[in-house]
Design brief:
With 456 residues, the chain is mainly beta. It is built from 1 helix and 35 strands. The chain is flat. The termini are far apart. InterPro entries: TonB_box_CS. Keywords: Signal.
């Protein structure tokens, strides 16, 4: 009898749990789905692409998700009846119509398998256009055009490219001395203006104005200088070019005076340099000499790059700092820009080492660390005049040898590189019978080094 009562008690408990479970399911059937929206207000503008995302959930299973905005013609339905997930992450990209009105609502509706719904509105508001168009073509302040005596004109081939973060509206070209005032409609996020304009001799100011749909303007002024063609020495597509400080003398340097420019394409080269003062001046050479092909600018047009030793003048950089430079020998053009470093250059301790100096034994290290000013390290050493072996030098952090400046050279140029694992490699070699003090300078921003005689 006792066993029968125990059995009946267990059955009663099981029936109670089943009823409780069924009752819980019944309770859940009348619970609305959950809806999470990543952003309940979106700032946008006509033509923009907007991402609407979030998460819908319901333990009974989801039947559909609908996103709608009647004013923008949007009605997107995710039909989930085939799978009825309990959790669904939605990502919807909508393109804002060009004619969109704002302060509209995007209605998001979640429906579960039992017909229960949850709704939320996402407010769509207008964000003002504050960005001006960007000129992709960088025009110099003065543009040289050769006057052709056979055709009795000088032709300027303009190819201006520009972009905007939203939508362009127009580009206007004004050349008052040629009675030219032309406005061309453009649209989209990128545009260009191509024109060939024939001039007589003289100087012609040009104003180019690009306007976007929001009324923001970008204005560029230049002057086209038309004159008889200047004679230039023959040029080649050299394997490497060199940039040099025009205000100093090559003979004052034992090494590093000529900094390499890497060959980037036919007749095109790119390099880096440091301007240590205002109105810093540079020339470009085809070899490590000032007596051969020497490139500067026309004394009449400071944007025209030419090869004419004894005729051309240096390119002048107004402010001190680090610069990148690009030259195109065939197009007779160049561009210079302030360098922005993607990673912070090294500024820790550096000590000089090498051979051919009386300040320490060959391959020893200097007793004092190099003095640092920004990214430039300097020290003064005494070079042994009667030294017969090849002279060499490099710089390192000798406390742990975790940073070493090593050297590479090839037919395409030369330069320094940072060895942060003491993996080994070359150091700089040079020949010189100079006997006296020298100043060695390392620059960790552009990875370059020089040795200069101290004559005063």
């Amino acid at each position: 009898m006792k066993n029968v009562l125990i059995t009946i008690g267990k059955l009663y408990l099981l029936l109670t749990l089943i009823c409780f479970a069924v009752g819980c399911d019944d309770d859940k059937e009348d619970v609305a789905p959950g809806l999470y929206v990543a952003s309940e207000e979106i700032e946008t503008f006509p033509g923009d692409t907007v991402l609407v995302s979030g998460t819908a959930s319901n333990y009974a299973g989801l039947a559909s998700i609908t996103l709608s905005c009647e004013g923008w013609g949007i009605h997107k339905v995710y039909d989930l009846n085939g799978q009825n997930p309990k959790v669904f992450n939605y990502d919807y990209r909508l393109v804002v119509p060009k004619t969109a009105a704002f302060e509209e609502n995007l209605l998001i509706t979640i429906c579960d398998v039992n017909g229960w719904e949850t709704k939320k509105n996402v407010l769509l508001t207008y964000i003002a256009d504050m960005e001006s168009p960007v000129m992709q073509t960088q025009l110099p302040s003065r543009i040289a055009v050769d006057f052709n005596t056979a055709t009795n004109k000088g032709s300027w081939n303009l190819n201006l490219k520009f972009t905007d973060d939203r939508d362009l509206k127009s580009v206007r070209m004004q050349i008052p001395d040629m009675q030219i005032d032309e406005t061309v409609a453009v649209s989209g996020r990128s545009g260009e203006l191509k024109r060939t304009i024939d001039f007589t001799t003289g100087e012609f100011p040009v104003t180019l104005t690009v306007t976007d749909a929001g009324g923001n303007e970008t204005i560029v002024n230049t002057t086209v200088v038309v004159m008889l063609a200047e004679e230039e020495d023959p040029i080649q597509d050299y394997p490497v070019m060199w940039v040099v400080n025009a205000s100093e003398k090559a003979e004052d340097y034992l090494d590093g005076y000529y900094a390499p420019m890497i060959h980037k394409g036919e007749y095109q080269y790119e390099g880096k340099f440091y301007a240590d003062k205002e109105d810093f001046q540079v020339f470009f050479t085809s070899g490590k000499t000032m007596n051969g092909d020497l490139f500067g600018v026309s004394p009449y047009v400071n944007s025209k790059l030419m090869n004419k030793n004894g005729y051309v003048v240096p390119v002048t950089i107004a402010e001190p700092g680090y610069y990148g430079v690009w030259i195109d020998l065939q197009a007779h053009t160049y561009s210079v820009w302030k360098l922005e470093f993607s990673t912070t250059p090294y500024t820790g301790s550096l000590t000089i080492s090498g051979c051919g100096f009386s300040d320490f034994a060959d391959w020893g290290t200097s007793a004092t660390e190099m003095a640092r000013d920004g990214y430039r390290y300097t020290c003064t050493l005494n070079q042994i005049g009667g030294y017969t072996a090849t002279r060499q030098y490099y710089a390192a952090r000798v406390s742990d040898w975790g940073y070493i400046l090593r050297y590479w050279t090839s037919d395409e140029g030369c330069g320094w590189w940072e060895d942060t694992t003491n993996a080994g490699g070359a150091v700089c070699s040079y020949t010189s019978d100079y006997d006296g003090e020298v100043q060695i300078t390392f620059d960790t921003a552009i990875l370059w080094a020089t040795i200069k005689k101290i004559t005063e």
